Amino acid sequence: MDRPDTRRSVGDIYLGKVEAVLPGIQAAFVDIGTEKSAFLHASDLVEPEEDELDEEDDAGDAGGDDASGDSEPAQGAAPRVENGGQGGKGSGEGRRGKFPPIQDVVKRGQTLLVQVSKEPIGSKGPRVTAQISIPGRFLVYMPSASRVGVSRKIEARDERARLRQMVSNILPENSGGVIVRTVGEELTEDHFKRELDSLLKLWKKIKKKSTFVRAPAVVQRETSLTRGIIRDLFSAKVDHLAVDSKELHHEILAYLDQVGPDLKERVELYAGDPPLFDKYEVEAEIRNLFNRRVDLPTGGYVVIEQTEALVSIDVNTGRYTGKKDPEKTILRTNVEAAREIARQLRLRDIGGIIVCDFIDMETRANRDKVLQELRQHLARDRARTRAFAVSDLGLIEMTRQRVRPSLMQSMTEACPTCTGTGRVFLPETVVGRLERSLKRAAVENKDPRMTVRLHPEVALYLMEEEPNFLKNLEKQTGIDLEVRDDPMMKLDEFKLMSQPAGRDVTEHYLVA
Fold it and tell me: Is the peptide bond between 261 and the residue preceding it cis, with omega within 30 degrees of 0?
């Protein structure tokens, strides 16, 4: 998703100015010209050691993001603290051991070249890293690294070795490190040479510009969403690309002229009926992304709840009861749920800590099957994910890399009626609060006549369920009361208007 008024910032490179260094949380705040200062953790300053990129963890595609390929440092490029942020949850130690104290490396007032690795989320500002990475179509160039890595999604050992050797041969000495991306599989040296030359030139231009601008300033913007999608996702494995905008169609073809002319014939300018999103049922999928409940093919369902601390996912058999063996019924529902959970996390772009409550299974083998199914489908995700073993409570805890707010956060806002809880008070609860407020007013004895304004549903409840309520309350309080229904009121709101002046005295008497 992209909007002109809220452009994506992951991958943007800034010359920032250090505003504060906080040894207590091993972090610094850097002014990069955004509304809130950027958060820089000590782990994002550490230079990678020679032996840090191992076979198992030597690379990932630069894109930590599903579509745009917004550049995140490769997974081996530097120790990372996943939960670091302005809340100060970063630990003092990275995945690969200790890093130098931040106060020894960074000083207040110092200028630094940094790259946005995480967009502002909630009350937190952006997160930045000093480990710059510049993604191309086939390679990711990292000026501060020193090794050649290969995307872990290229699994063939011979091909990995061939690519590593080929790129090592064309990489100038002491010029940084490179990662071969998944789409680079089976390419020739010429492809890599052309792109590497282009990336080295771009880095030279970035360094030069950083000496002329005054911090805080943007030095390099990440490419547009459209170009990012083409760069990172559109390869020979994609049969067809449909676009319904002439402007975007032209932009895509112009970009493919540079990076993959042979793919141009797969691009179609769609101009038919119905609209493109309706034809491929994308619109219906988008609507479903905001539902708490997601139905499974055989009748079970999952419920997804996003909270401040974590995302909880509950699995239920629903109307699917199987035939005879309850354990088989449960296993089938859980396996279906594992597939759907992995898909929903990608589609909704949910990140952070996720806890999945699958239906309890008796055998260890079945629990392992469900975990394996979940991990297998999570492997398709371009964001880093990690699923842990089933806990003693039967829960699967996992994490997913959070680069930007989820769709729920970026496309919705808290309901003004329930203030984000998803719940409102029942009519009887509202009436109880009203009663206590009027008794408080009776003690002060300043407003002998009042009009009570209520939502129509609460007024109807009073008439039908508690018809003597007002009469009894008038006797108890000595206040002359009149009730009016007001469709403009919130469902669980009431107002007390002092008469004859019509002054709103609700706040004065409202029960806390």
Answer: no
Residue 95 CB neighbours (<10 A)? 14
User: For residues 369-385, b (16+ Cβ closer than 10 Å) or e, as one string?
Assistant: bbbebbbebbeeebbbb
Beta carbons within 10 angstroms of residue 37's beta carbon? 22
Nearest to 486 by CA among 451, 450, 452, 455: 455
Q: What is the pLDDT of residues 355-364, one digit of tens each?
A: 999 998 888 8
Helix (H) and strand (E) counts for the chain? 14, 22
Q: For residue range 152-192, what is the model confidence (pLDDT) as tens digits?
A: 888 888 888 888 888 888 888 888 899 998 888 777 888 88
CA distance 192 to 179: 11
Rounded to the nearest 10 degrees, the angle between the axes of helix 456-465 and helix 427-444 is: 90
Q: What is the full DSSP assignment across 427-485?
A: HHHHHHHHHHHHHHHHHHT--SEEEEEE-HHHHHHHHHH-TTHHHHHHHHH--EEEEEE
d(CA 225, CA 1): 8
pTM, two decimals, is 0.76
Residue 480: is its pLDDT beyond 80?
Answer: yes
3-state SS, residue 231: helix
